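To the wet lab folks,

You asked to see what we're planning to order before we commit. Fair enough. Below is the target structure as tokens, and below that is the sequence we designed to fit it. If anything looks off to you, flag it before the synthesis order goes out.
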């Protein structure tokens, strides 16, 4: 009697469970998710405080870009960001600032935005503080903000300077990609 054992490598196991951007586009209407390294992460609808923060930051950044005839563009979620050339990574940051117009297509952004802002919700803390932090850094995002409304704290990662700073909402928030510019968040 011959015993046959099928041995699967870690790569073959990963490939069996890997989703692609095609799976994201096949989701039912109204269902939103992100894809990181072939794994789907479903997103809960944002609450009112979250949306107020997104609106406040979007307005301040868009106004700054407009007043200074800037080349960058800002896009609020839902806006597709394809972080790399494979079909296993798709995210929808709360705010994406893109300075290279060649990255912008009708479908979204191909490549890393220059600046990404994520507003933390109770269900997204692990994603925003760990998974996305690593993914954004390795993809080439220059600056990443994690805005935590519960703690009224903004964590600013400036990947170009390899620095991380935390600021309370009532403090000036320095923008790394625009030297000498700072924003201030309202308390909602």
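Sequence we intend to order:
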């Amino acid at each position: 009697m011959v015993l046959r054992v099928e041995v699967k490598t870690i790569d073959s196991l990963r490939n069996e469970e890997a989703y692609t951007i095609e799976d994201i586009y096949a989701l039912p209407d109204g269902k939103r998710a992100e894809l990181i390294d072939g794994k789907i992460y479903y997103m809960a609808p944002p609450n009112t405080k979250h949306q107020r923060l997104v609106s406040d930051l979007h307005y301040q950044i868009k106004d700054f870009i407009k007043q200074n005839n800037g080349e960058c563009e800002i896009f609020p979620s839902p806006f597709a960001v394809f972080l790399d050339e494979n079909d296993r990574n798709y995210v929808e940051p709360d705010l994406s600032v893109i300075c290279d117009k060649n990255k912008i297509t009708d479908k979204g952004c191909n490549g890393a935005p220059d600046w990404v802002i994520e507003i933390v919700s109770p269900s997204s803390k692990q994603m925003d503080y760990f998974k996305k932090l690593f993914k954004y850094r390795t993809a080439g995002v220059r600056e990443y903000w994690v805005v935590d409304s519960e703690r009224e704290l903004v964590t600013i990662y400036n990947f170009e300077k390899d620095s991380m700073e935390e600021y309370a909402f009532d403090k000036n928030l320095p923008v790394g990609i625009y030297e000498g510019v700072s924003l201030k968040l309202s308390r909602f």
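Structural context that might help your review: Residues 17 and 67 are 47 Å apart (CA to CA). Confidence is low (pLDDT under 50) at residues 1-14.

Thanks,
Computational group
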